[in-house]
Amino acid sequence: MTRPSVLLFDLGGVLVRNGSFDGLRDLLGSQVDDDELRDRWLRSPAVRSFELGRISPNAFARLFLEEWQIPLSVEAFLAEFVSWIKEPYPGAGDLLAGLRRDYHVSCLSNCNELHWTALVPMLGWFDSLFSSHLIGEIKPDQRAFQTVLDRLGVQPDQLVYVDDSRTNVEAAGRAGIPAFVVQGLDGLRARLSEEGVL
């Protein structure tokens, strides 16, 4: 692999503990596995609209509850939804600080205004930030990755992308970007070491 100049990270499940799928599974009352939930989440019209910044939190809650057939009030759902963003994995900030000495460190996250607000304390860990609700593009759409490449002014092989979703990693690969699936900070450290980045 060519030595990259940019390291691009997903947030939830890679650098930040993600409670979304546990929370969603609890609401659904089913034992659907993470991969199936992740794929359904990525395809959800309500989620896509909200994470593209096109609808308000209340409109998202109404659409989502109807789409997923969850018997909750809008207010109760939004309170639950906000709690799905958890704390960064211990050591994530130190890892990124070390990487920033040698690389441009960025994130590409499918996110929304509520969760982005919860992430504010860690956003200073990055040299640049790309969130779907701010750039108007969403993974796994190719335009999301192209937007990052265009704004950073780099070629695909100058960037490495890491995500906990195989669907998103495969999409990045189709854009010519070296990309890897990892789960959590230990998995991230191991993969970065394996690729000669650490």
Summarize the structure.
By secondary structure, the chain is an alpha/beta fold. Helix content is about 50%, strand content about 15%. The protein has 2 domains: about 5-15 and about 85-195, HAD superfamily/HAD-like (Rossmann fold); about 20-85, Orthogonal Bundle (DNA polymerase, domain 1), CATH 1.10.150.
Q: How would you explain this protein's 3D organization?
A:
This protein has 198 residues and is an alpha/beta fold. It folds into two domains: 6-17 and 87-194, HAD superfamily/HAD-like (Rossmann fold); 18-85, Orthogonal Bundle (DNA polymerase, domain 1), CATH 1.10.150. It has eleven helices and seven strands. The strands form two sheets. It has a five-stranded parallel β-sheet. Strands 2-3 form a two-stranded antiparallel ribbon. α7 (113-123) links the parallel β4 (104-109) and β5 (128-131). α3 runs antiparallel to α4. The longest helix is centred in the first third of the chain and has 12 residues, at 57-68. The model has no long low-confidence stretch (mean pLDDT 93).
